[in-house]
Amino acid sequence: MQPFTTLTGIAAPLPIPNVDTDKIIPARFLKTIKRSGLGRNLFDAMRYLPDGSENPDFILNREPYRRAEILVAGPNFGCGSSREHAPWALLDFGIRCVIAPDFADIFYNNCFKNGILPIKLPQEICDALMEDARLGANARLTVDLERQVVVRPNGEEIRFEIDPFRRHCLLNGLDDIGQTMAHAAKIDAYEAKRRAAEPWLFA
Amino acid sequence: MGEGTAPRTLFDKIWDSHVVERLPDGTCILYIDRHLVHEVTSPQAFEGLRMAGRRVRRPDATFAVADHNVPTSDRSRGIDEPESRLQVETLERNVAEFGVPYFPLMDARQGIVHIVGPEQGISQPGLTIVCGDSHTSTHGAVGALAFGIGTSEVEHVLATQTLLQKPAKNMLIEVQGRLPFGCTAKDIILAIIGRIGTAGGTGHVIEYAGEAIRDLDMAGRMTVCNMSIEAGARAGLVAPDEKTFAYLKGRPYAPKGEAWERAVAYWKTLPSDPGARYDTTVTLKADEIVPLVTWGTSPEDVVPITGAVPDPDSETTEARRAAKRRMLEYMGLTPGTRMQDIRVDVVFIGSCTNGRIEDLRAAAAVAKGRKVAEGVRAMVVPGSGLVKRQAEDEGLDRIFREAGFEWREAGCSMCLGMNPDQLRPGQRCASTSNRNFEGRQGPGGRTHLMSPAMAAAAAVTGRLADVRQLVAH
Ligand code: SF4
Predict the structure, then answer these.
(1) Partner-chain residue, chosen from A186, A198, A202, that has the shortest CB–CB distance to B20
(2) Biggest distance spanned by C-alpha atoms of chain A
(3) Which of left, alpha, beta for A94 (phi over 0: left; psi -120 to 50: alpha)?
(4) What number is the average pLDDT over the span A29-35?
(5) Which of B151, B231, B276, B361 is the most buried (most CB within 10 A)?
(6) How many Å lie between the centroid of ligand 1 and the Cα of residue B114?
């Protein structure tokens, strides 16, 4: 997993509540064999018109937001199914950080498994950041995970909270697998014990 | 029970014996004994391994088969649908690259992953078994802790043979007494879901017990455990007994010789200790169960076949009334209609819930000497190539064919319609599968869940029918 330390980039405003995982990536795109490539269909129903052309009104189809790396979103972002295709689609588009008043549980967890930083901030602060995100070419936020601050275009710093263990994993690019592998000696020992007791379970 | 230890449940025992390490926040690194892999939820996991330069830690504990996407028509010339073909070919490339055992499409052992596991003796008592599929709960029927996982977790298991998990709560569902004539394991689990609801088991692992469960054959126990997930539980299990041992003995991956004796001795220690504590207990009386069908778009919407479509106005809150009205609209039903007056267009007999030989026998007993009703498409999809072969050896295929049923190749098929076997909008289906969600069997399709015998009865009468009127007691 790619570590997340600091990120300075364009923030796109998406002031819609309850954006569910079907909106993020519709079910028909799950017949894929990759995590990558889903970015094209991120927010598919909002992003494209029925004839397949881009909807010019949708934020991510407009400059400079085509290059957005941060999303400022509404409450209950990521509700619905548990599909990991949702964070995969965001990441593939280039979004590494989502800021919202709150998130659906599974989506929130899935973000950390994929190197995306979800930041929960109170509604009023999200409202202010939403205004920043509307600044077009000047809609640049800096997210500093080390110091746990979001820096607004006017230089003001906003502190956010995050579980220390998750912060540690993101900063160092440690995924669950990497974490578990740190216990490899324990797994080896356990396996040896089982192999002795139940050899028929081992080829 | 060891000295000084509190009485433990079957779940507690399996859990305790698989904890590799307990982390400070209570999360456990849980060892996984058996990992089943299919084509839809594994490609990204293998891709992840490849990108990180990791290997599969225990290929010998991993088994792969393609089932969700595969066509159930003749497939000697491969798969037509390009995206399905790509998912299957990708699985084949991945298993070759990582050295994982695989049952190829043209192999008789190919079939639905949850049919194949027990059939091959891969699923054994006391094991932890996972698969990137929610119906992994099926394998709990042999007394294993078996549950579904997401794609990141599939990768985690491939790489480390473990999962990060917190223990579940224990629920005991005791089905007392004997099942009446015409009722099956499917009716038991539908009755349970009707009673506790689709969220009734949330956060729990369900242990099924009682005389009616003990009386079930292994296939019936698998049907019950299969739908634990429809009751909200991640896993369901049944204590292993002589039936379990007899079922497993001689299967390809079951222990042999002296190892068999040792295994059985261990398996006999697994049933819950007397006095073991459950967080939740539910009791059902088997003799009150009648053949059931679903009327709505949630598996908890069950009604006796002798009953009628319920009236949304009898619900207590406006939100519930509105929800039921929406369901009825989707299902094209009006309150008060007798269930037995509802006509069907399609009958689907198969899936990991009811695609085993015992299920096909029960359906064939009803179909024998009868004809599929005019205008009804009825299909039988065996759960595996071996089930298909066995059925053909017993002449069941002839019974079905003569009655006008399609006799197809093994796979998930119309359970979820990822392959060409789909309902068309508005079509009504009597199905032996496990989910009646909107669009599950094809966009706009309408599903009624029931047992294999009841589905066969629907096929030959052209409507939802009471199987008890078609077979001799
Ligand atoms: S038969 Fe249906 S429920 Fe079972 S694994 Fe296949 S798709 Fe899932």
Answers:
(1) A186
(2) 66
(3) left
(4) 83
(5) B231
(6) 8
CA A113 to chain centre: 9
Q: What is the mean pLDDT of residues B247-267?
A: 98
DSSP annotation of B373 reads P
Q: Ligand 1: which residue has its CA nearest to atom 6?
A: B412
Helix (H), strand (E) at residue B282: strand B280-285
pLDDT of residue B166: 86
Residues in chain B with CB shorter than 8 Å from the CB of A114 are 152
Q: Which chain A residues touch B263 with a CB distance below 8 Å?
A: 198, 200
CB contact under 8 A, B418 and A31: yes
Burial of A89 (0-12, 13-18, 19+ CB in 10 A): buried
Q: Which residues of A touch B160 (CB under 8 A)?
A: 177, 180-181, 184, 187
Of A31, A183, A194, the CB nearest to B21: A183
Q: What letter does residue B27 receive in the DSSP assignment?
A: -
* Residue having the nearest C-alpha atom to atom 2 of ligand 1: B415
B43 min Cα distance to partner chain A (Å): 5
Whole-angstrom Cα distance, residue A150 to residue A74? Answer: 17
What is the structure's pLDDT at A161?
97
Contact B462, B375 (CB under 8 A): yes
Closest among A175, A1, A163, A191 to B24, alpha carbons compared: A163
- For the CA of B383, the nearest atom of ligand 1: 1
What are the distances in angstroms from CA B268 to CA A103, B31, B231, B300, B327? Answer: 46, 21, 28, 34, 46
β-sheet with B128-131: strand ranges across: B102-103, B62-65, B34-37, B128-131, B145-148
- Searching chain B, which residue's CA lies closest to the CA of residue A114? B152
Cα gap A130→A18, rounded to integer Å: 16
Q: Which alpha helices (DSSP H) does B332-425 contain, by range? A: 351-354, 357-367, 385-393, 396-403
pLDDT of residue B320: 84
Looking at residue B25, what is its pLDDT?
A: 78
Residue of B14, B18, B20, B251 best to disrupt the A interface, most CBs of A under 10 A:
B20
ipTM, 2 dp: 0.93
Which of A20-34, B72-86, B124-138 reaches the highest mean pLDDT? Answer: B124-138
Chain B nearest-CA distance from A57, in A, is: 30
Looking at residue A81, its pLDDT comes to 56
> Would the pLDDT of B283 be above 70?
yes
Q: What is the mean pLDDT of chain B?
A: 95
> What is the reported pLDDT for B41?
87
**pLDDT above 90 covers what percent of chain B?**
85
Q: State the distance from the centre of ligand 1 to the C-alpha of B108, rounded, in angstroms.
A: 19
Distance CA B248, CA B266 (A): 14
Please determine, for residue A100, whether its predicted confidence score (pLDDT) is greater than 90: yes
How many degrees, rounded to 5, is the angle at CA B330 between CA B325 and CA B332?
A: 90
Strand, coil or helix: A18? coil
Option in B69, B151, B160 nearest A177 (CB):
B160
Nearest-Cα distance to chain A for B122, in Å, is 9
Average pLDDT over residues A102-124: 89
B137 has a chain A CB within 8 A of its CB = no
- Residues of chain A with pLDDT > 70, as a percent, come to 97
